[in-house]
Write a structure and sequence with these properties.
mainly alpha; 0% strand; Kinase-like_dom_sf; APH(3'') family aminoglycoside O-phosphotransferase
């Protein structure tokens, strides 16, 4: 986290969510946690396509 700076917080959020999903027991638990996270951040309509983009981009940035 934090590798990409402050340009787009979705970059960090995508990696955080991907990592946290490993600890969620069921899809409904993951969806609840997702909703709570974005509610706390004040993001009413999370851009799931943007999150997916950063997850696809991440392996390309490995050194």
């Amino acid at each position: 986290l934090g590798r990409l700076g402050t340009a787009d917080r979705y970059a960090d959020l995508a990696l955080m969510i991907a990592n946290a999903e490993e600890n969620w027991a069921a899809p409904d638990e993951a969806e609840r946690a997702f909703a709570v996270l974005f509610n706390v951040l004040g993001i009413e309509a999370p851009d799931r396509e943007r999150l997916a983009f950063y997850l696809r981009l991440d392996p390309l940035t490995w050194g």
